[in-house]
Amino acid sequence: MTAALLDGEALAARIRAEVTDRVARLRGDGVMVGLGTILVGDDGPSARYVAMKHADCAEVGIHSAHAHLPATVSQSELEDTIAGFNADPAIHAYLVQLPLPAGLDEERALLAVDPGKDVDGLHPVNLGRLVMGSDGPLPCTPAGIVELLRANDVPVEGRHVVVIGRGLTIGRPLSLLLAMKRPGCNAAVTVVHTGVDDLAGLVRQGDVVIAAAGRAGLVTPDMVKPGAAVVGAGTSWEGRKLLSDVDESVAEVAGWITPRLGGVGPMTRAMLLRNAVRAAERSR
Ligand code: GUN
Asked: What is the pLDDT of residues 42-61, one digit of tens each?
């Protein structure tokens, strides 16, 4: 292996330490930061992600609340739970874990969240703020990827970043963020997906490649410009084993690469904590 590892776990630990200090400062002012999660149904990976978010909260001193609804819940029952979290002064920020089970309307659920409590940055108002370049919570995985690249001094500004995938939580907001004139971004961005012709040829043009398609092993060494930074952000599962969109042999040609575990995932969760603290600081 020749690539340097983009160690998200180490960076996330530093961010959790920063968040711990900010949470303690708020507590000194009489504010107990509260983060909520709403999980609908029994999707295994979603339940594991939510459990990890609560463990992170416990580590940094954030109070966390959880609502677990059955997959059979109606849209209006889900929206009642969302309204309860909106009204609860002990919850400064919360999320509805996605994807929702079939039959529930994700857009309506996201619209029902108070934008000031939207810890995911996925409420249409906050996505609109991202498009406009105004201040607001950034979606956690895109923000975490930008932080991870910056902290490892990966050149991004002025370079060509190829984002594979256009999903709501990663590819679409990340492509906007990376093109913006702000530190660690300011890149030429190409968005591709598994439906484009000559995917390999386009990916090979990237100085930085971010794979967020959710297809295991999609990015292979022949698709990577030697020395490029390659970030595996998409996930899929083989039983309980988390698989990366990036084949591990890519480490032989890349200049930087995320590990299969401990890359983007911990950064996403760290950004969630940061967004929660920011929401509490703003609400004072
Ligand atoms: N499911 C996968 N990624 C995300 C995310 O960033 N936020 C929420 N709410 N659900 C997700």
From this structure: 999 999 999 999 999 999 99
